[in-house]
């Protein structure tokens, strides 16, 4: 049973130790990018561990490419976090410094607080400057480059990538991991590199499998990717790598596959490689991931609210257009009703005139001509009535549509108001 469903069973401690003694340690781009988010001591300790296992580390070409492409964005994020913290400190300083409203603080205490605030802001400014310098003089990038020297995979040819994109389209439709969570990303660009972006996870996955086949060794993949197209989750808890990944890896590479987030990798490195890893570094990495999770959730909420506001704008435009169309139909129906009324009166007059002729037997009046005129008026009346019925039907349809739009708009506005109140 374990042979058929390897992803559903844990390795024994003995087998796991053997894996760690011989495997290749592969790192995703997010692990390298998180080095910019860690404290100096945590980053230093993590990099020292990688140096000790340098002969067994490897970086997929796609992961290296994503790291280099996103490095400046992450540096910018850290710079902005310093600015936001300094802004919060100055806001608190302003609140406390206002002697005309609560909360009240004595001038003596305020003088001491200002010294601490000044000290904090100066240190934040200095640390921000360190990050800014990394834009052009990045010691973290140099350390990573040194560790992974001669340990970065080769890129796929364009022909191979084209085949992978075609394969990826079908995999994503069938929800085959990894990467299908990126299926909503646009892949319609004429720029080839942008088309590949949607399939970045799949490209990394294939490069990892190819490396295992080439080296004839098992793989330990270290990634801080949180998406469910990599991890099996149950009631909000991460169980392990998705069983489909373990099965595909075994089928294609005929070897073992294990996957860990950074904190768990460090804990297991301490157990299986006898390396010194402090509890503080593990806890800090978990805290960074928790903050990232909160930030990611907030970002998704903001994206949702942005889409919701765009939708409200479109709904209001559509409502306005529908009102204008309904006003046009109202004018048209009024004109048609007036014309129908005129034709109906004319028909009635002609009918009475015909009856009068038949009753009095007046032969001087051309009855055939009268009948033809009556038939012509009747045809016009029928056409006007048909046109009026059609306009009424369209008007009723638009009225129902407008009611639906108003309900949808009210619902969207209620969500936005609720979200704004929560933010406040």
Structural features:
single chain; about 425 residues; mainly alpha; 4-stranded parallel sheet; two-stranded antiparallel ribbon; 6 strands
| Overall mean pLDDT | 86
Shape annotation: elongated
* SSE sequence, one letter per element: HEHHEHHHHHHEEEHEHHH
Output the radius of gyration: 37 Å
What is the makeup of the main sheet? Answer: 4 strands, parallel
Helix content: over 70%
- In the sheet with the most strands, the strands line up as 2-1-3-6
SS element count, helices = 13
Report strand %. Answer: 5-15%
Query: What class, by secondary structure content?
Result: mainly alpha
Q: Termini separation (Å)?
A: 55 Å
Outline the structure in words:
It is a single chain. This protein has 424 residues and is mainly α. A 4-stranded parallel β-sheet has the order 2-1-3-6. Strands 4-5 form a two-stranded antiparallel ribbon. A hairpin with a 2-residue loop joins β4 and β5. α3 crosses α12, α11 runs antiparallel to α12 and α12 runs antiparallel to α13. The protein is elongated. The two termini are 55 Å apart.
Describe the structure concisely.
With 424 residues, the protein is mostly helical. The chain has helices at 13-22, 29-34, 40-52, 61-97, 107-133, 139-147, 158-173, 192-197, 200-215, 243-253, 262-272, 279-360, 367-423, and strands at residues 24-27, 57-58, 219-222, 231-234, 237-241, 257-260.
Topology at a glance:
Layout: H1 13-22, E1 24-27, H2 29-34, H3 40-52, E2 57-58, H4 61-97, H5 107-133, H6 139-147, H7 158-173, H8 192-197, H9 200-215, E3 219-222, E4 231-234, E5 237-241, H10 243-253, E6 257-260, H11 262-272, H12 279-360, H13 367-423
Parallel strand pairs: 1-2, 1-3, 3-6
Antiparallel strand pairs: 4-5
Helix pairs in contact: 3-12, 4-5, 11-12, 12-13
């Amino acid at each position: 049973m374990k042979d058929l469903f390897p992803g559903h069973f844990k390795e024994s401690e003995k087998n796991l130790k053997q894996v760690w003694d011989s495997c290749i340690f592969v790192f995703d781009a997010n692990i390298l990018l998180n080095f910019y988010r860690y404290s100096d001591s945590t980053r230093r300790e993590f990099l020292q561990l990688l140096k000790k296992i340098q002969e067994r580390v490897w970086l997929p070409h796609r992961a290296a490419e994503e790291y280099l492409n996103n490095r400046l964005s992450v540096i910018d994020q850290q710079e902005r976090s310093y600015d936001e913290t300094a802004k919060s400190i100055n806001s608190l300083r302003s609140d406390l410094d206002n002697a005309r409203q609560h909360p009240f603080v004595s001038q003596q205490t305020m003088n001491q607080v200002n010294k601490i605030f000044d000290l904090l802001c100066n240190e934040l400014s200095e640390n921000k400057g360190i990050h800014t310098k990394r834009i052009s003089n990045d010691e973290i990038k140099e350390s990573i480059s040194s560790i992974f020297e001669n340990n970065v995979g080769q890129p796929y040819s364009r022909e191979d990538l084209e085949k992978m994109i075609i394969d990826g389209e079908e995999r994503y439709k069938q929800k085959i991991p990894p990467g299908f969570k990126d299926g909503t990303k646009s892949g319609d660009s004429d720029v080839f590199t942008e088309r590949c972006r949607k399939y970045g996870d799949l490209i990394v996955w294939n490069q990892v499998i190819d490396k295992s086949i080439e080296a004839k060794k098992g793989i330990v993949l270290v990634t801080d990717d949180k998406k469910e197209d990599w991890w099996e989750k149950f009631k909000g808890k991460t169980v392990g790598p998705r069983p489909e990944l373990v099965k595909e890896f075994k089928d294609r590479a005929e070897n073992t596959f294990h996957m860990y987030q950074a904190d768990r990798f460090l804990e297991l490195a301490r157990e299986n490689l006898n390396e010194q890893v402090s509890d503080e570094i593990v806890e800090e990495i978990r805290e960074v991931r928790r903050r990232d999770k909160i930030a990611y959730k907030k970002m998704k909420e903001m994206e949702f609210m942005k889409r919701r506001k765009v939708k409200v704008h479109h709904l209001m435009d559509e409502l306005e257009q529908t009102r204008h169309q309904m006003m046009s139909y109202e004018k048209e129906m009024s004109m048609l009703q007036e014309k129908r009324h005129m034709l109906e009166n004319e028909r009635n007059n002609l009918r009475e005139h015909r009856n009068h002729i038949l009753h009095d037997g007046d032969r001087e009046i051309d009855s055939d001509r009268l009948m033809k005129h009556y038939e012509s008026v009747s045809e016009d009346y029928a056409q006007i009535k048909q046109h009026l019925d059609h306009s009424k039907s369209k008007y009723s349809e638009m009225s129902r549509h407008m009611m639906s739009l108003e309900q949808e708009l009210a619902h969207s506005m209620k969500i936005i108001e609720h979200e704004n109140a929560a933010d406040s």
